[in-house]
Design a protein that fits this description.
- The protein has about 650 residues and is mainly α.
- It has 2 domains: about 450 residues, no CATH class; about 190 residues, Rossmann fold, CATH 3.40.50.
- The chain contains 25 helices and 5 strands.
- Strands 2-3-1-4-5 form a 5-stranded parallel sheet, with helices on both faces.
- Helix 5 runs antiparallel to helix 6, helix 9 packs across helix 13 and helix 9 packs across helix 14.
Length: about 650
């Protein structure tokens, strides 16, 4: 697969590359549950559907744990790569893989042995209990596999291989779909057959995910990276919003199961029918949630990388497109639920079932009350993931709480218990909570977007102020100045530019390179200050050199100017009208300048100067393949001590004027 450039490739192309496989992957996870629900509903009946609904909170727990580590790991990986901290990205990734295996095993063991108590807690009736227990024990056995491969699927997408992640999940889902009818109808295994079909598919996906670890492209993992370290706390922090989002759905599910069985028993629907219907509608609704979440999560690597690199303009573009697409998805699903509820739920029950008429009636009632304005939920889902991608864990966590915990449950209790609306009060709470949550999220999303706008406006102003105006009227000339540290070469270049009346580019190239590369001005300044060799752990350094090359070449074509450093002599070696100069000085003079102008202690000046010049030579060698102090690379070599800084500039000015005649 062609490696994608998150900082420069077309946003539409990136979203298609990341979001579509992510949506498919998310949908496949939903299909696992829906396929079981369909075959179990047809083979076992309403009580079988109710059993899978009772166990669904357990599935949500597994998904929440996987999201905690997986989304946190992928968000951290993207942010660290965007910041250029590749070593930290590598260590945190290896650590998170190890921790995910440990947590997955612990969760699997606990869920298996606590299952009898959990089944009652999740809202099971006595009729449904034996079916739920049989189904749940097998699902618990497969939990370590689903947690690990779900976590790794996030990493694989962030690593730039969304198609691999998608194929991994597709294979598992296909196996599940094939085995379901064989086990349920062929071997007459009932709910247990559906559970084993699911687990076998999950094991296959797990194995495919494990095989990817040695192939990770963004970093090269070593054995020592798999030792857990403190970076896991940052990862868990970044994934906390996704975890809480899933856990709030869990809380909602448990609340709804218990409320529907309790209040439904007082109606003509009874306890089991509402429990079964809610489970089915939730599974169908998971297709909608998976689509919206898939788009949002698929955009995470793009948002995280560009935010880490300081390219807020691209972040804003991604946000606009993600929100637009998700609203379209929300409207489509909303219309389907409201207009075609009977057709949706009839897939999960046979007409010969004794409770068929009541089942359909309650399903239609639920879709046209509780799900009435479900489409506007896209803003809450998108906002939570987006804010998490920007590294604001606290705000993302708050967004995750709003709809389910702070609004829906209190409103449902108020309507059903205080105002005595019974089971209808629970259903009517849905659209009320949706509307209030939508209004709150408009403010939260808007505030984040406004911050990005303010940063971008500041960046534009800085870039505009860096533009230079030329009063030079002579023949086109570009002067490149390479210089030893402490030789006064930068000041010579500045004086020469002023005397010629042409723009001078040194630090000014930072803003221009930031705009070209998508890297932040702060990041480039950090690299510039370190005078690094650029052969570092980060691919972003190469991107910076490529951006500087383009900027320098564009400047050379458009205007006469003076450019200091940055391998400009090599970059422009094939250009006409380029004067390549190397300025140097004796050791004593360099030490005096370093002490006087750069506040370097006199006893450290000599070593400091040698280190800087050594790094400049390494940087030059790495990108040009030539020796920095090789005389044949330059047109003029001048010892600044011979004339002094000002007279050296004057000598160069005279040379240029005479050269142009």
């Amino acid at each position: 697969m062609k490696k994608l450039d998150l900082g420069k490739d077309n946003i539409n192309k990136l979203l298609l590359s990341f979001a579509i496989p992510c949506v498919i992957s998310m949908l496949i996870n939903s299909v696992y549950n829906i396929v079981d629900q369909i075959f179990i509903g047809k083979g076992v009946g309403t009580v079988g559907n109710a059993a899978t609904n009772v166990i669904f909170p357990l599935v949500l727990i597994f998904g929440a744990v996987a999201s905690l580590i997986g989304n946190g790991t992928s968000a951290n990986l993207s942010l660290k790569l965007g910041e250029g901290k590749k070593e930290e990205a590598k260590q945190s990734l290896g650590s998170s893989i190890t921790v995910s295996v440990m947590i997955a095993c612990i969760v699997g063991i606990l869920s298996y042995f606590l299952l009898p108590h959990l089944v009652h807690f999740f809202g099971s009736t006595e009729t449904v209990y034996p079916y739920a227990l049989a189904y749940g024990k097998i699902i618990a056995i497969g939990s370590p596999f689903v947690i690990i491969y779900s976590m790794l699927s996030n990493v694989i997408r962030a690593d730039g291989s969304p198609k691999y992640s998608m194929i991994m999940l597709v294979i598992g889902a296909v196996i599940n779909i094939i085995l379901d009818p064989i086990f349920i109808f062929g071997f007459h295994m009932g709910v247990e057959g559906g559970a084993w079909a699911t687990v076998i598919g999950q094991v296959v996906s797990f194995l495919i995910a494990i095989f990817y670890i040695p192939k990770i492209k963004s970093v090269k993992l070593e054995k020592r990276d798999f030792v857990p370290n403190k970076s896991i706390f940052r990862i868990l922090g970044l994934g906390l919003s996704s975890f809480i989002t899933q856990m709030t759905v869990l809380v909602l599910f448990v609340f709804m199961n218990n409320m529907l069985t309790r209040l439904g028993a007082d109606t003509k629907f009874g306890a089991d029918t509402p429990l079964s219907v809610y489970g089915i509608i939730s599974k169908i609704n998971s297709l909608y949630i998976s689509s919206v979440l898939g788009i949002a999560i698929g955009s995470q690597p793009i948002i995280g990388f560009n935010y880490g690199a300081g390219n807020k303009k691209r972040v804003k573009e991604v946000l606009r497109k993600v929100l637009t697409v998700n609203f379209i998805i929300g409207i489509i699903f909303n219309l389907i639920f409201v207009l075609f509820p009977e057709q949706l739920v009839s897939l999960f029950i046979t007409k010969s079932d004794a409770s068929y008429e009541l089942f359909i009636e309650f399903a239609v009632l639920t879709c046209r009350s509780m799900m009435l304005v479900m489409g506007i939920n896209v803003l809450e889902i998108t906002t939570s993931i987006v804010v998490q991608s920007l590294g604001n864990v606290l705000k993302a966590t708050m967004v995750s709480f709003i709809r389910q915990i702070l609004l829906f449950i209190p409103i449902a209790c108020l309507l059903s218990l205080v105002f005595h609306k019974g089971i209808y009060g629970v259903l009517y709470a849905g659209p009320i909570a949706d509307i209030i949550c939508f209004l709150i999220c408009i403010f939260i999303f808007g505030s984040e977007y406004k911050k990005l706008t303010e940063v971008e406006e500041t960046k534009v102003k800085e870039y505009a102020s860096s533009k230079k105006h030329s009063s030079y009227k002579g023949k086109h000339i570009v002067v490149t100045i390479s210089r030893e540290y402490g030789s006064g070469g930068r000041y010579v270049g500045q004086l020469l530019a002023e005397q010629l009346g042409v723009p001078f580019y040194d630090k000014e190239l930072i803003s221009l390179s930031a705009k070209e590369s998508g890297l932040s001005k702060e990041y480039i300044e950090k690299i510039d200050e370190k005078n690094s060799s650029m052969k570092t752990e980060s691919n972003n350094d190469d991107r910076l050199f490529i951006a500087e090359t383009k900027v320098i070449q564009d400047l050379a074509k458009k205007e006469s100017c003076v450019i200091v450093g940055r391998c400009a002599d090599y970059i422009l070696k094939d250009h006409k009208d380029v004067l390549k100069i190397f300025l140097y000085s004796d050791d004593h003079s360099k030490e005096e300048r370093a002490t006087k102008y750069y506040d370097i202690p006199k006893n450290k000046a000599s070593k400091y100067i040698k280190d800087i010049n050594k790094k400049r030579a390494k940087h030059y060698k790495y990108y040009t393949g030539r020796d920095w102090n090789e005389r044949s690379n330059y047109d003029l070599l001048i010892n600044v001590d011979t004339f002094g800084v000002e007279k050296t500039a004057n000598q160069l000015l005279d040379y240029i004027k005479n050269r142009g005649e």
